[in-house]
Amino acid sequence: MLLRKLHFSTLAIHLIFIALSLACIAPLLLVVSISFTGEHSLMLDGYHFWPQKFSTAAYKYVFSGASSILNAYGVTIFVTAVGTLLHLLITSMLSYSLTRPEVTHRKALTFFVYLPVLFNGGLVPQYILLTRILHLKDTIWVLIIVYLVSTVNVLIMKNFFRTIPDSLIESARIDGSGEIRTFFRIALPLSKPSLATIGLFVAIAYWNDWMTASLYIESPKLRPLQYLLQSLMNNIGYLQSNAQASQSMESAIGMLPSEGARMATCVLAIGPIILLYPLLQKYFEKGLTIGAVKE
Fold first, then answer.
1. Could you tell me the pTM of the whole model?
2. Please, are residues 142 and 216 in contact by the beta-carbon 8 Å criterion?
3. How many angstroms separate the CA atoms of 81 and 144, rounded?
4. Residues 51, 36: Cα–Cα separation, whole Å
């Protein structure tokens, strides 16, 4: 009887998680289906998980400026990769320093790190700093520096470094390892779960950022993907509103793949970044330090 109850409970848990997984996957499949459906078919038949009338008009419209899209992809990939690596390096080094009792003025430095959580300078001081003091306007580095340090991520990494046994650090020092070597050879490898989690969130923030480009970027060659897609959607809305002023709603929507283009931009925007999830999933497991020190 107990075995049957156990099997039933396990089956019920599996069914619940399968249902939740399908609920998460279904919107993504619907977005892909709409992006490959003709605009006229969407207006007549509505949304379906399989295109009622297959069409690539939305992607042709989005890729009408193919060189701009490819250039924007290159800018976004560079900013995301370099920004995420620098963010993880700075965050991990700062967090590790805050956990070591031998660091001079550690409490004052910790308070300086906590202070931005309570008080934020705002957008105007940031704009003045980046444009008039650092002179980073209309450079690719302005897209990187805005997310280079996060107080919340520093706190997360600091708490994780506290879980590393002090005996590991002491053993490395006894063997003649310096602070830099101890950090890169012992502390950093043991913090892979924390690095993977923070790195994923930071990469998504860099990938989805378009506001920074709208404030600081003027050159078309430095526009990231999200800003370009946002501009494309604004152009579609503008053209559609002008068409509706002179034609009927049906003919205006038929001329411009507005709904399909919106979904196509979603597919193009989330396609590459979604590949990070299966690559980083194994590092979400905790407890890498268990058994590292003999009792």
1. 0.77
2. yes
3. 10
4. 6
The answer to whether 280 touches 210, Cβ cutoff 8 Å, is: no
* DSSP code per residue over 161-187: HTTS-HHHHHHHHHTT--HHHHIIIII
Instruction: Return the bridge partners of 54, or none.
Output: 37
Q: Return per-residue pLDDT of the chain as tens, 295 residues.
A: 545 555 777 788 888 988 888 888 888 888 888 888 877 777 777 777 888 788 877 777 777 765 677 888 889 989 999 999 999 999 999 888 888 877 778 778 888 877 776 777 778 888 888 888 888 888 999 999 988 888 888 888 888 888 888 788 888 888 787 788 888 888 888 888 888 888 888 988 998 888 888 889 888 888 888 888 777 777 666 555 665 555 544 454 445 566 777 787 778 777 777 777 777 666 655 534 443 444 4
Q: Put residue 138 in one of left, alpha, beta given phi > 0 → left and psi -120 to 50 → alpha.
A: left
In the chain, % helix, strand, coil (3-state, to 5) comes to 75, 0, 25
| Angle in degrees, CA 191, 145, 233, rounded to 5 | 105
Q: CA 143 to CA 141: how far, in whole Å?
A: 5
C-alpha torsion 6→9→12→18, nearest 10: -80
* Amino acid in the structure at residue 10: T
Amino acid identity of residue 137, one-letter, is K
Nearest to 208, CA basis, from 146, 273, 138, 280: 273
